[in-house]
Amino acid sequence: MAEVYGRRGGGDGVLHTYIRELSQMPLLDPTLLTRTQAEDLVALFSEVASRPALSTDEELRRPDRQALDAWAMRYLFGEDADAAGRAVERALRDLVIERTQRTVSGREQQQKAVRRTVFDPAPLASRVLMDCGVQPKFIEFLPEDFGPSVEVDVPAHEDLPARLGDSLMDQGDVLVGDRALITGLDDGHAAAVVALLTAEPRFSGSVQLPLAEDIAQAAVDKWSRRWSEWKAGVEKAIREVLPKAAQAQRRSLVARELEERAGLLPRTLVVE
Predict the structure, then answer these.
(1) What is the pTM of this model?
(2) In angstroms, how far is CA 134 from the centroid of its own chain?
(3) Per-residue DSSP letters for 210-252?
């Protein structure tokens, strides 16, 4: 709330809000809740509030946080809760990336006059990410109204690349590393999950996909083309800012920094 509504102080510390401006914030009015709703909300919130806050990515994977968010989405959006929840999560992740980029940009401006003796990949990674934008997410390529859907549960998993099973034994499976993460899907839905985990490798939870396999596959094809374009554009931008053969190690450092900022797995980008 402070980030969105707070007054800018020219970089002078935490943003602040005056009391008279509180009415502009979309805060929940507790008097509108029934007793049961209030008790449920307090119980869910208390569980989250009783532990230290984690990073955004870790926070969104916590069962207690997911339960609280699911309650809020149902209260606010009713039947559209699932779609709203996914939209809010995507917006939140994008906002975190944007704020991180701005923070790095601010540090870069403050340090312009400082001669650095150690190469710092952060400013270049931030600049490339701002120029090229964040990676395309598969969910963004699904039609707004794709008709009947199927819910696929993506379990928590290791931070390893996702791929389709390529043998008779594991056809239709989604593999993470060498282990089967999800089994028994048809090819289109399995490809959709792989696309989802390629751009958001730490995603876990349920995802709604079109029941029609051809619609899911069409979205995968559109995402794949855009993913290849984005990846090639980022790799080209890194090579352009560090074009010399002797700068190969620095290109790798920038790529690893950018991957971390975008929430991608290491070595997703190839710039050697």
Answers:
(1) 0.58
(2) 9
(3) ESSHHHHHHHHHHHHHHHHHHHHHHHHHHHHHS-SGGGHHHHH
Q: Name 142's Cβ contacts closer than 8 Å, sequence gap at least 6.
A: 209, 210, 215, 219
Cα dihedral sign, 206-207-208-214: negative
- The H or E element spanning position 77 is helix 63-77
Tokens of 11: 């970089």
Q: What are the contacts of 88-95 at 24+ separation with CB within 8 A?
A: 89/60, 90/137, 90/139, 90/140, 92/56, 92/60, 93/56, 93/57, 93/60, 93/263, 94/134, 95/3
Q: How many CB atoms lie within 10 A of CB 216?
A: 27
pLDDT, one tens digit per residue, over 5-37 is 565 555 555 567 777 777 777 777 788 899 999
Distance CA 212, CA 143 (A): 12
For residue 25, what is the DSSP state? S
pLDDT in tens, 132-156: 999 999 999 999 899 999 999 999 9
Q: How does 172-198 read in b/e, with b if 16+ C-beta sit within 10 Å?
A: bbbbbeeeebbeebeebbbbbbbbbbb
| CB-facing half-sphere around the CA of 230: CA atoms within 13 A | 21
CA distance 119 to 182: 42
